[in-house]
From TrEMBL:
One of its GO terms (biological process) is protein targeting to vacuole. This is VPS8 subunit of CORVET complex. It comes from the Eukaryota. WD repeats lie at residues 70-111. Residues 1081-1133 form the RING-type domain. Residues 1140-1150 have a biased composition (Basic and acidic residues). GO terms for molecular function: zinc ion binding. One of its GO terms (cellular component) is early endosome. Keywords: Metal-binding, WD repeat, Zinc, Zinc-finger. InterPro entries: Vps41/Vps8 (IPR045111), Vps8_central_dom (IPR025941), WD40/YVTN_repeat-like_dom_sf (IPR015943), WD40_repeat_dom_sf (IPR036322), WD40_rpt (IPR001680), Znf_RING (IPR001841), Znf_RING/FYVE/PHD (IPR013083), Znf_RING_Vps8 (IPR056939).
């Protein structure tokens, strides 16, 4: 079905009579354009020339109030209001006057000119429910109460200001009107008035005395948005109370006003309504529905409870009248605020009026009225547009009571549903006729099928929803039969409803057509699915059974036999055996109908007996001579032994006190044994399933079955002594399952264990040993079983680590494991839990771990908690079998002793591991010498370079903790060692020079340049050469020196410049004069004395606050520190949420205060402190200045510069000729200097 639709909710009519007379009056009597409208029992329209046209309900002109001369004097009519009994009319004018008219005779009763300040236009004038009370609102934003009296025959009017425009301009007022039916409501006695200003909503009561009940701010809104108000009495929780809807912009708020039992008035905010448009008009059309107009002049009908938009109507053709000129007060010179004039651009308060479920809209040449359509009109409106699906959907929502903005329906649900159902039947019949007439006569058959596929399911749906299958099969179907395509689509569409059991019974004609259609089109699966879900009492049983046999519809056939003839045996005699038959037998024995439902309770025992009798038949009905006995049980066993036995097991569960059923149970067991044990056609698995089934039954406490124990022995021999070994695993698994379900009690355990060992059934042996708690023998089972060798250590791990085993049992398993552990690569995984076992420190354990064959790649976590001697033993074994992993193990383990570990690595000549241990010990010299020994293979340059890299890294790490002499000794020893290498070992002498440069370059950060130059001159490689060969090294050192000297000088200059700049700005900041914001003390609020003779001390803070010194002392905001006070601003510290006294310790520790202060006499002489020190305020200024500089320090920038140009930096290993390759001549070299921070003056 389609989603819920709402149709056309509003009926829109043009009041042609009134519209024509408005245009005529403008032409004939110069009435001008319409400006305002109000509605009661009459309709009054004001014009721009001061006239008021009053029409009756038949749109006839009754009165024409005022004259054009009056209009010239008073201006245009800007507001209208009719009292509750429709006897008086208030008329407000653009120039500020107010008149009252008698609507019975058109007599002018009052002219009010002094009710509000002159020079302002009347924006609103409203009667209240009190007959002598009204309110008006002028363009100055003020609101006045008008009290009408008649004293001594004189009509008077007293005015009282309710809200002054100087406190916020009100641009909309709305009194609460209760109406005659609610005149006794407890809220009506208060004469509530809602006022909307530019910033908030005010709710006040005029009676018995003026009282403000609530104010509510709008929040952030568009300044050009129009404030809107509307009252409505709404039923909330079975009580009727007034609700005020108000908005400014796109959010509507709701306030519920109610009076509780104690007499207290409550104003409760309710859920707001969020829209996506700017509103200019807000009206209630009934207690649940709002009619809104947005700034594009589109009406939006919104259901308030669901906040769903029901309809949108474009009102652009109306040419709505706006009240902008009155809000701008153009008739009095335009003396209004810009904010009010901006709001007035889109105001139309006087052009929209609601009364008794009707809303009227005033256009420049016409008047439109909006009313709600009743439910029939809304449905008929869709039918006229031939939108049948939408009409049905809308009608169904009326039927269920879920429709919105409903009008004209009965309050009683039964009556409502009956009326709507009749309407829906009418629509459905029209829909059928229309679908047949509109059917495409030409084109492809697929087009016609699609046409009816879109229509027929909708009809079926609604007929079923209305529970009118008679309508569907007796009226709609006969009409569709006229079209063959429609007939086929209808019959096909019934299938899903039948399968979901929404349709359970068809008429004979429809059922016959359905079966014939499906059979003709080869849809036999659909036939079977439908048959098993339907009442077949109306069918021709013989025809249906024949059709099922012909098409092998076994489910349908079983259903027909069971449901139609109460015959549960015939299906089993004729249906081919299979899973279907097993399920059927299971259902019959369990009392369930096949394929769904339940067997009638009175037939359940009879059906069970019939099924058992069928199963134990000696021969079938039409048995051949060669047929074996018990054919049905034999066939089911051959088909699926396990499932058939499961069916029997489930059935036996229900056999408690039924004597006959127990007899059937014993009889079936005897037949099973006779069929399977004496027959070689069954596999070991099938035989095992039988005896597993029997073992389960015999293990029950209430067992009544008897089975010869010799049969179990015979089965044991059969499983353990096979003729061939092709089913070894299967036999073992079957026997294990038999034992696990309790069959062990049927055997001699010793004989069983002996047969299992001979048959190599090691899982059976494990099962038996586990029963006897001989866990150590289970180790042998794992070792002998080639399929489970890898699981041995998991088993040992579980035995030794899990609770529930005695220490003696664990010890036996442990000893057995030590005797046989020679199995897999993961054997050492068992060592982890052995720390908690008895004998862990025994010689057996040491023997185990000392076995070289056990050393394989292993995880360090397995040895995390062993003693140091065992760790050293592991190190020794690793040195022998995994030398490449020794260093990594030493770095991650901490449980060995250094001296013993060093001896082990030295014994195996692992120089890298020995050097690591010596360095860890603190013997850097010894580690250095060991690493030098690693260069024994000097024929390979790669190994020399690797050794040299390790030595340089060692020297660099250790140089930081040595003095200059020790550094030179280390580096020179390394240099000598390098020089001791004969140049003949290298094919090119340049390779040795390159190594020398790398060493000297690394030395330059730790050794003084003179010592390095001396070492170069002593180098035998260069000592015999010319000066030109060492020129590059010396020049590189000089270039490095010049580079670092320049960086040092630049850094020093920058830091000095920064310090001078910072101190100068700090001095300016702390010596700047302060100007107070006010001329009074912020504590006592007394102005300080300006007279010269006054000696009163005042304190001014940098925040602009001023205090008397005595006032601050009383508030305890000063902190005494060594002979002077450190003041803090009392007002600023109070705003920060802490007392000054509580902050004194924090201020003294952080050396900062709230603001800078200057202490002066009243004649503005500053008290200078005796000492030139920074007080707390100056310290705070210094901290504030430092926080302005958020970037990295310049020293950090220069350090980064040296790193970033590290590859370009000249050095000993990268000599550069001066004048050509200097870094100062490089185009890419630049110093990265950050600019000074910016400080606001």
């Amino acid at each position: 079905m389609n989603a819920t639709v709402h149709g056309s909710v509003l009926r829109r009519n043009v009041l042609k009579g009134i519209s024509a007379q408005i245009v005529s009056a403008a032409d004939k009597v110069d009435a001008g354009l319409p400006t305002a409208i109000t509605v009661s029992n009459v309709i009054a329209v004001g014009t721009s020339h001061g006239l008021v046209l009053v029409f009756d309900q038949n749109q006839a002109l009754r009165l024409c109030l005022g004259t054009t001369a009056t209009g010239a004097e008073y201006g245009a009519v800007s507001a209208l209001s009719i009292n509750h009994d429709c006897t008086r009319l208030l008329c407000g004018f653009a120039k500020g006057q107010i008149t009252m008219w008698d609507l019975a005779n058109g007599k002018l009763l009052r002219t009010i000119t002094d009710a509000h300040p002159p020079g302002t236009a009347i924006l609103h004038v409203k009667f209240t429910d009190h007959p002598a009370l009204a309110v008006c609102n002028d363009s100055g934003g003020s609101v006045f109460e008008l009290s009408f009296r008649r004293v001594m025959g004189m009509r008077t009017c007293e005015s009282r200001c309710l809200f002054s425009g100087s406190k916020g301009e009100v641009c909309c007022v709305e009194p609460l009107h209760a109406g005659l039916e609610l005149k006794d409501h407890p809220i009506s006695q208060y004469s509530l008035l809602a006022m909307a200003s530019l910033t908030k909503i005010l709710l006040i009561g005029l009676k018995p005395s003026l009282k403000v009940w609530m104010t509510f701010p709008y929040g952030k809104t568009d300044p050009a948005s129009v404030p809107l108000l509307a009252w409505q009495f709404v039923a909330v929780q079975k009580t009727i109370n007034p609700v005020l809807a108000f908005c400014r912009g796109d959010t509507i708020h709701f306030l519920l006003v109610k009076k509780d039992e104690s007499g207290t008035i409550h104003v409760i905010k309710q859920r707001q309504l969020q829209l996506n448009c700017d509103l200019i008009s807000l009206s209630w059309i009934n207690p649940r529905t709002l009619v809104l107009m947005d700034s594009t002049e589109k009406l939006r009908v919104v259901d308030r409870p669901s906040q769903e938009e029901l309809e949108t109507v474009d009102m652009a053709e109306l040419q709505l009248v706006y009240n902008s000129s009155h809000f701008k007060s153009l008739a009095t010179g335009g003396n209004v605020s810009q904010a009010l004039a901006l709001v007035g651009e889109k105001t139309c308060y006087q052009s929209v009026c609601s009364y008794a479920g009707q809303i009227m809209y005033l256009g420049t040449k016409s008047v439109h009225i909006m009313t709600l359509r009743n439910w029939r009109e809304r449905v008929d409106h869709l039918l006229k547009q031939e939108k049948f699906m939408e009409a049905l959907s809308l009608a169904w929502s009326f039927h269920e009571g879920t429709a919105k903005a409903v009008l004209g329906q009965s309050f009683y649900p039964a009556k409502r549903k009956g009326v709507v159902a009749d309407k829906m039947v009418e629509i459905l019949l029209q829909y059928v006729d229309r679908s047949l007439k509109k059917c495409p006569e030409q084109g492809k058959i697929q087009v016609m099928e699609q046409h009816f596929q879109d229509i027929v399911p909708v009809m079926v749906d609604y007929c079923l929803l209305l529970q009118r299958t008679d309508l569907l099969f007796n009226q709609i179907y006969p009409r569709l039969v006229e079209n063959s395509v429609a007939r086929g689509v209808f019959l096909e569409s019934l299938e899903p409803y039948i399968l979901s059991e929404r349709i359970g019974c068809l008429t004979a004609a429809v059922m016959r057509d359905l079966l014939s259609y499906f059979q003709e089109n080869g849809m036999m699966d659909s036939v079977e699915g439908c048959l098993v879900h339907m009442d077949i009492t109306n069918l021709d049983i013989q025809q249906v059974v024949q059709m099922c046999w012909d098409n092998q519809l076994y489910d349908a056939m079983i259903y027909v036999f069971n449901s139609g003839m109460n015959d549960y045996i015939s299906p089993m005699e004729h249906v081919v055996m299979g899973n279907k038959m097993l399920v059927y037998i299971s259902c019959c024995l369990a009392g369930r109908a096949y394929p769904l439902g339940d067997i009638p309770e009175d037939l359940v025992p009879q059906v069970k007996n019939q099924v058992f009798e069928f199963l134990i038949r000696l021969h079938s009905v039409e048995a051949a001579q060669e047929e074996e006995v018990y054919p049905y049980i034999r066939t089911l066993l051959h088909f699926d032994t396990r499932e058939f036995l499961n069916v029997l097991a489930l059935t036996f569960e229900d056999f408690k006190n039924d004597k006959q059923a127990l007899e059937y149970q014993q009889r079936i067991v005897d037949i099973l044994l006779k069929v399977m044990v004496d027959n070689s056609d069954f596999t070991p698995s099938q035989v095992g399933c039988l005896f597993t089934f029997l073992a389960r039954q015999l293990a029950k406490p209430d067992n009544t079955l008897f089975v010869n124990r010799k049969l179990f022995d015979q089965v044991l021999e059969f499983l353990c002594s096979p003729d061939d070994d092709s089913r070894h695993t299967e036999r073992q698994q079957v026997l294990l399952e038999l034992l696990q379900v309790g069959g062990v009690v049927q055997f001699d355990e010793e004989r069983l264990l002996d047969l299992a060992e001979k048959a190599e059934f090691y899982q059976i042996c494990e099962f038996m040993y586990d029963r006897k708690h001989l866990y150590n023998k289970i180790v042998d089972c794992y070792l002998k079983d080639p399929l489970r060798k890898e699981e041995l250590f998991n088993y040992i791990h579980n035995i030794l680590s899990m609770p529930g085993y005695s220490s003696e049992e664990k010890q036996l398993v442990w000893v057995k494991a030590l005797q046989h552990v020679k199995v897999s690569q993961t054997r050492l995984q068992m060592i982890c839990p052995l720390e908690h076992t008895p004998g862990r420190e025994s010689s057996g354990f040491r023997k185990l771990i000392s076995d070289p064959n056990l050393i394989r790649p292993f995880s360090l976590s397995n040895f995390a908690q062993l003693g140091p001697d065992l760790h050293e033993l592991l190190v020794d074994l690793q040195c022998q079998f995994s030398p490449q992993q020794v260093t990594a193990f030493l770095k991650t383990s901490q449980d060995y002793r250094l001296e013993e570990a060093i001896q082990i690595t030295e014994k195996h000549k692992l120089h890298e591991a020995t050097a690591y241990l010596l360095e860890k010990k603190g013997d850097v010299q010894g580690a250095f010498e060991v690493l030098l020994q690693s260069d024994e293979v000097q024929s390979l340059l790669r190994r020399v370079e690797e050794a040299l890299h390790d030595i340089i890294a060692l020297c660099q790490r250790s140089s930081h903790g040595l003095n200059q002499q020790q550094r030179e000794k280390h580096w020179c020893i390394m240099n000598l060692a390098k020089c001791s290498v004969s140049p003949d070992c290298f094919s090119l002498s340049s390779a040795l020079k390159e190594l020398t440069m790398k060493v000297l370059n690394s030395m330059s950060s730790f050794i003084a340049p003179p010592a390095i130059i001396q070492r170069i001159l002593q180098d035998p490689v260069y000592g015999k050469g010319k000066l030109a060969e060492i020129q590059g090294l010396i020049l590189g050192m000089l270039e490095t020196f010049n580079y670092e000297q320049t960086l040092l000088e630049t850094t020093t200059n920058l830091l000095n410049s920064d310090l001078h700049w910072s101190l100068s700005h700090l001095r300016k900041a702390v010596s700047r004069g302060l100007h107070p914001r006010q001329y009074h003390c912020n504590i006592c609020l007394q102005q300080y004395k300006r007279r010269q003779e006054s000696e009163e001390e005042i304190i001014i803070f940098s925040c602009g606050h001023l205090y008397h010194c005595q006032c601050l002392q009383r508030k305890e905001v000063g902190v005494l520190s060594e002979r002077q006070y450190s003041w803090s601003c009392y007002k600023c510290t109070s705003n920060q949420g802490s007392r000054p006294a509580d902050r004194s310790s924090e201020e003294s520790s952080r050396s900062r205060s709230t603001s800078l202060a200057q202490v002066s006499r009243s004649h503005f002489t500053i008290n200078m402190l005796s000492e030139a020190t920074l007080d707390a305020q100056q310290t705070q200024a210094w901290d504030h200045f430092r926080t302005l500089y958020r970037g990295p320090s310049r020293l950090a920038v220069l350090t980064e510069l040296t790193h970033s140009h590290g590859n370009e930096r000249p050095g000993l290993s990268n000599p550069v000729h001066p004048g050509t390759g200097s870094i100062y001549h490089s185009e890419n070299f630049q110093l990265k200097l950050s600019p000074p921070p910016l400080v606001e003056e």
